[in-house]
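Step 1: inspect the first sequence and its tokens.
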Amino acid sequence: MTRRRLLGTAGASGLVLGAAGGAVGYAARPAEATPLTSLGAGEVMFHGKHQPGILQRLQARGHLVAFDLKPGVGRREAAALLRRWSETARRLMAGEGARQDDTAVARDAGPSSLTITFGFGHGFFARTGLEKQRPVSLDPLPDFSSDRLDKARSDGDLWVQIGADDALVAFHALRAIQRDAGLAASVRWQMNGFNRSPGATASPMTARNLMGQMDGTRNPKPSEADFNERIFVPDSGAKDPAWMANGSYAVVRRIRMLLDDWERLGLKEQEDVVGRRKSDGAPLSGGSEKTAMDLDKTDAAGNLVVPINAHARITRPDQNGGAAMLRRPFSFHDGIDGDGVPDAGLLFICWQADPLRAFVPVQRKLDRGDALSEYVRHEASGLFAVPGGAARGEYVGQALLEG
């Protein structure tokens, strides 16, 4: 019986699961209990064509964690690890306990739209003797002039993305995944993020980042005819190995925002840097958030309304050969340093069928003259191959590890 079913049933008799009935130890509420709120009841399916955590809306809490395989661990042990992880993800996303010795951190909570996503880094393939199955698209990203990368917080053999609308549900999943790693893998780095909670605004709207700007206005949408070919690897193709069918490539960047410098700017200066109004995300050329930006519009003095180096101008797909990425980030705040400067910014995560045709050309162009680059610092980076979703009875990556 799942947490959701236990907690969502009014008039429960106070049944407590004993050791024989399920050692996770979840208990139903007393008779006066009310059903779960919509926030806790949200459930995402683990099995499917694509892995969860890509197409779903942004969640309120997130954890990113990368692992390195331990010395002596090979393909067989890696397969056992992905099998364990997939079963744990399936159970937790359904609102169940992780296993017999579940920590009960998420006791009383429903699934809370939990998603757990798994990916493979460049080094995974050499460690497991699968170099011939490593995709060309997983070649290391080039160096960018704006990079100030901490190698200890970059890359990794395995990558896990966790998102949920409840902080305890997200943490519970993080601990379960870490414990499942056992003797097979150790944590290389881990980062925590957050977004605005669902229901915090009068109606659903584009998220805001810590600079106060709307973030993700021009995200490609599943309703667009070319969405799948831009975001997901096709079922068959010459470039990617068969095991990547219906998968995607995730670029992960820890981008520190220099908030003290940013907040010294006036509103007009901030809007000129971005190219959009801060109040509603509309382009400076006019209209609403979804209005197409008029790149040629000028003011009375003949100056471009959207500055030539505005971030929104430079990143437009039609200014980058149609390159498009699905942005699905989290904000982060990791404290305040001794000088009173916040260590805060964006855990940038973007999804694409081919990073060499999407992320790389856009980032190169940003390198050459983005007005926003003066106020951000890229401190960590990773690229991961995220295979398609697992069918029922299968685990993520099975086609690679058992093919």
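Step 2: inspect the second sequence and its tokens, then contrast the two.
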Amino acid sequence: MSEIQERYVSANQAHLFASFEDLTDDERKCLLSQLKQIPDPSKYLQEVQDAIRYSTSVSKSRRFSPLPAQACASTLDTSSETLREWNDVGLDLIAKGKVGVILMAGGQGSRLGSAAPKGCYNVGLPSQKSLFQLQAERLKKLQQLANTKKVIPLYIMTSKPTRTATEDFFTKNNYFGLEPSQVIFFDQGTLPAVSLDGTKLLLESKSSLIESPDGNGGLYKAIYDNGLLQDFAERGIEHIHMYCVDNVLVKVGDPIFIGYASSKKYNIATKVVRKRSADESVGLIVMEEETKHPAVIEYSEVSQELREKRDPQGLLFFRAANIVNHYYNVAFLQEMIPKWISDRKFLPYHVARKKIACLDVGSGKIVEPSEPNGIKLEQFIFDVFSSVEMHKFGCLEVDRAEEFSPLKNAPGSANDGPETCKANLLSRSARWLTKAGAILLGSEIEVSPLTSYSGEGLEKYLGSTIGSPAVV
């Protein structure tokens, strides 16, 4: 018996090897390769059981309050002079090659009726551009605005199901005008599924475990495992902007955000938008009262009374909606990532009870359960906020209409679907062109990211009449 088998048998996982002697050499290698990914299965299963207990305990009744005022700023009421200063600081850091961008792109478009990665999806714009193309072109335009020959490295986190298709999509489209050397692909990890009580790993077949992506919190381990900390150092990157692929309005590498966070010397900063309404189902950026550290809480953790509570200005008391759009100081990542991935208090497992088709070892057949029979695990990217001192954490509120329109739901949905994404991007384009003095005939008029990053450079359209559909 190999050392790996001994380790798992000692952890009461002998069922994984019930058919081992019947497997081919390649099948044995496949199984052992998966098992190698968990150095200490006993520890892993104990952490899973801890997560199960936590999810059913009263520990979710923690007390929260809005972030302190000194940790917050808003582009909605910050002076134009300060915004220009932040923008200039950000562009200067970009020009010096000190900024990198991480794109979270591990998701598939299955909910949208597509077998391709979500970033390949086209929401129906006049240009017919995919999410990936829109974002790559924004990055290219940002490099032009920074007036630099240095490129902004784009690190794209994929998953096993999306990696090949994503790389092929970029290659086929000549990287959308970016240099191939500036685009770095890396995979997020996976976590094995377990039985409902957290004591047994589940098999997909006689030679493979059931695994699922480890959630957006897997970013930190993926950065570590793929040597990106070293790559940051070699490229001289000191500041990272991280965002999710499904936001059609995202300002990739936003110099205002970079300038805001870096000038205030924050270790981590986050963008938020105001909740649409008291009952919008979104996570909220808050302060945990006991520790005085930042945190994210789910919609369900806020009582109806608190959801509806207003401050003296008439705004919702809890309104800072999390949009998973973060700034990281690289020196802080270099120090903390090894701690985060080794200590479960920083990056705990979160459990999702699922109906999981799995191998019944006794019969050798796949069982299709009618009730939840197992647990899939994930980690949340914001759980590490608890390791940041409040004075080193910043929260920048931005205009939802300018910066946030996520593609979450199937075509025909009332919110956050392809139609709303298209409408919101075209509305933003119309605002920019109208402000520049253009006369618009129709609503299907799109400003290309190669023309303008955030509304600048449109003066040439003063007095011009633009018909629909059009891409300018």
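Step 3: confirm your contrast with the notes below.
The CA atoms of residues 54 and 60 lie 8 Å apart. DSSP finds 13 helices and 24 strands in the chain.
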